[in-house]
Amino acid sequence: MDSFLRAAYEEAQKGENEGGIPIGSVLVIDGQIVGRGHNQRVQKGSVILHAEMSALENAGRLSPSTYQNSVLYTTLSPCKMCSGAILLYKIPRVVIGENQNFQGNEGYLIQNNVRVDVLNDQDCIGMMEAFIQNNPQLWFEDIGEDSKDKDC
Fold first, then answer.
1. Residue 117: beta bridge partners?
2. Which whole-number Å values give the CA distances from 143 to 126, 132, 147, in the listed order?
3. Which among 24, 42, 102, 113 has the fewest CB atoms less than 10 Å away?
4. Active site includes 57?
5. Whole-model pTM?
6. 36-54 pLDDT per residue, tens
7. How many CB atoms lie within 10 A of CB 131?
8. Backbone phi, then psi, for 93, in 5-degree steps?
9. 119: closest CA among 143, 97, 140, 87?
10. Choosing from 16, 52, 106, 141, which is the catalytic residue?
11. Segment (H or E) for 33
C-alpha cells in the first residue's frame, strides 16, 4: 500500500473507531496531502460527509487549476455524490483502494476523462467487508438503499 492510500486507510480506521463507517480519503497535490477526511455521517448526523466530501472540505478553498493538478485517494469506490464533486472540480485522477464491496460510479468518471486506478487492496477490502457484515443497516443507509429489501 502506497503512503497516500495508507493515509486514506488510516482515516477510514479513525471513522470506524469513532463509531462511523470506515471509508477514508485524501486529496494530494504535488506529492503532498492537502486534505484528509473520513466518512462522518454517523458522528455528525450529516447526509453528505462521505470521506471524499470530507477530504475536499478539509482541503479548504482551492483554485480551479489547483484541483486540476490533484489526485484523490479513497479507500472505496466513490458514490454518485462524490463522483459529482470529483467532476465538478475537474480532479483528473482517482485512486481507489477497492471496489469489491461497492462498485461506485467509476464508469461515469472514466466517461468524463478521469483516470481511475482501482488497486483492490486486501486491507481495504477486508475492513469494508467486515463492516458491512457487522453493520448492514448502517451500510445500506450510507449508500442510499433501504435495507428492508436486503438480507440483513
1. 95
2. 18, 11, 10
3. 113
4. no
5. 0.93
6. 999 999 999 998 999 999 9
7. 21
8. -145, 135
9. 97
10. 52
11. strand 32-38
